[in-house]
Amino acid sequence: MRVLVLNSGSSSIKFQLYRMPEEVVEVRGMVERIGEPDASLRVRAEGVDERLKRLVPDHAAGLHHVLEALARLGVPLDTLGAVGHRVVHGGEDFAHTVLIDEAVEAAVERNSALAPLHNPPNLLGIRVAREVLPGVPQVAVFDTAFHQTMPEAAWRYALPEALYTEHGVRRYGFHGTSHRYVTERAAAMLGLAVDQVNLITCHLGNGASVAAVRGGRSVDTTMGLTPLEGLVMGTRSGDLDPAIPLFLQSTLGMSAAQVDKLLNKESGLLGLSGLSNDARAVEEAAAAGHERARLALEVQAYRLRKVIGAYTAVLGQVHAVVFTAGIGENSDVARAMAMEGLQPMGYWLDEAKNAGLRGREADIAHLDSLSRILVIPTDEELVIARDTYELAAG
Ligand code: AMP
């Protein structure tokens, strides 16, 4: 069976075509700048790498171009057994992957209030796929689902009750598909059953979050109601004094939209360094003596180190700290800075094993370290393909 994995954004559709259960990616690509004059389609397959200018007025046209490209590459559409959709916010409605029906669509729509930038395009992708591929099962995999196992003490904000009961204001967490993938891989690497493993999983990309995992289940995570809470990210501030947005509005006269833009798009590594949101560029500048770039990396690492300490307290016993996503998989500098000084806590990074390690699974802890320190490249699309195949194949 073939499974098409779709990640529909506001102006893009990323796709991967898997042959399942072999878990082989046959085609991958992206429709970009939907609705703009310079829209394009990128398609990659064995021996194929093309970028084509296309007229893409809307998501329906985008998906048509994807299916046309697959047909051109010799993939008969009647071998398409299911479509798996990445959906950002499942609220409290979804703790697992589900087959999409009208009730699921309605719940995704309801949760759009919590993720106004993400859920509407995700839902659009679902509706377009249902129309273009009638009769093909559609599956939704939620970024929030893995964290639905958090205990109430971890997901509550200390706010008046009605904000939660009437408006759903609570901590949800994101990157769940990635935290789940590395949890399963880490258990395999450690030779433990998934339900026996305690981990601190660090998803460090342009967006970043850490999860505390007890017995294979998320018991805390750094992102909250939205993906703005927690760590210092590429352009997001992460945690700050909640009075700061009030100060920006009442004292500096900024509008809510300006505050939103400042905290989500102009802060983090970019705001601190004044240079870039890209960790690699900031690392290069810091190495060349750029003072603000060095400080940006230090603030980022310090905040991550504090979370690792806090989650060690949450879990008691930790089998491994796991690094994943762009920075976690590739940056020996970020890993070394985060783990610095944690030896008394049981985390002893082996500098030689860490140095230069990029994009592959490895244990970079010293042999005498109490806990392991693992690097695991994440694969969210594979999780979506597996879940989709399982549900579609019954
Ligand atoms: P992601 O959002 O997971 O794609 O991660 C993107 C981030 O990973 C960007 O900040 C990149 O600069 C960072 N990254 C990728 N490769 C490296 C590398 N070799 N060294 C440092 N950062 C990297």
Notable features of this structure?
single chain, 394 residues, alpha/beta, Nucleotidyltransferase, domain 5, 2 domains, eight-stranded mixed beta sheet, six-stranded mixed beta sheet, 14 strands, 20% strand, binds adenosine monophosphate
The total beta strand count reads: 14
SSE order, one letter for each helix or strand: EEEEEHEEHHEHHHEEEHHHHHEHHHEEH
Examine the secondary-structure arrangement and name the CATH architecture of the largest domain.
2-Layer Sandwich
Q: State the end-to-end distance.
A: 12 Å
Structural class: alpha/beta
Radius of gyration: 21 Å
- Shape estimate: globular
Biggest sheet character: 8 strands, mixed
Uncertain residue segments: none
Number of helices: 15
Number of separate domains:
2
Small molecules held by this entry:
adenosine monophosphate
Could you describe the 3D structure shown?
By secondary structure, the chain is of the alpha/beta class. It folds into two domains: 2-142, Nucleotidyltransferase, domain 5, CATH 3.30.420; 192-380, ATPase, nucleotide binding domain (Nucleotidyltransferase, domain 5), CATH 3.30.420. Helix content is 38%, strand content 20%. The chain is built from 15 helices and 14 strands. It has helices at 59-72, 102-110, 119-132, 152-155, 161-167, 176-190, 244-250, 256-265, 268-273, 279-287, 291-315, 325-330, 332-339, 351-354, 380-392, and strands at 2-8, 13-19, 24-32, 40-45, 48-53, 80-87, 98-99, 138-142, 199-204, 208-214, 217-221, 320-324, 362-363, 372-375. The strands form two sheets. An eight-stranded mixed beta sheet has the order 5-4-3-2-1-6-8-7, sandwiched between helices. Strands 11-10-9-12-14-13 form a six-stranded mixed beta sheet, with helices on both faces. A hairpin with a 2-residue loop joins strand 4 and strand 5 (48-53). Helix 11 (291-315) packs across helix 13 (332-339). The radius of gyration is 21 Å and the shape is globular. Adenosine monophosphate (AMP) is lined by residues 205-206, 234, 278-280, 283, 325-327, 330-331, 358.
